[in-house]
Amino acid sequence: MAIEFASSSTDEPLLSTINTTPLVDVMLVLLIIFLITIPVVNSSLAVRLPQENAQANEPQAQNVLISVDASGALYWFDTRLPNPAALADLLAKAALLQPQPEVQIRADARAQYAAVGLVVDACQTAGLQRVGFLTEPQR
To answer: Does this model's pTM top 0.85?
Structure first.
């Protein structure tokens, strides 16, 4: 027993493509379900996280500490430098050390930006890779 299809008078070819509309509908519904349920799953467990006070890093022995006071005077650790050329010489010697030390700049908040920029420029000219600024934590 064979199945016979009604023949059309125009001889149109059969459509052989897949209808993806139902697939897209199902995927959109699943996407909406996941978007709604994931935040609920992530935040359903109440946890008290530990609280820790941030502690300031103390200057280490291998670090170079350069201070700039409010008047723009430069200090190598606690020794006042007579001029910026002396700073450049000391930084050039520090750049030759292996591993290179980190330069930590302690600048007074009232210091002129030009004095701090001079220190940063001298570090860059000497070839030092690690330069940081020391600050005080907010109260």
So the answer is: no
State in Å, rounded, how far the first CA of the chain is from the last one.
92
Q: How far apart are CA 109 and CA 74, in angstroms?
A: 14
- For 64-133, the fitting CATH number among 3.40.50.2300, 3.40.640.10, 3.30.200.20, 3.30.420.270 is 3.30.420.270
pLDDT tens profile 24-62: 999 999 999 988 887 765 554 455 555 667 666 665 558
Q: Is 104 in a helix, a strand, or coil?
A: strand
DSSP code per residue over 50-92:
P-----PPPPPTTSEEEEE-TT--EEETTEEPSSHHHHHHHHH
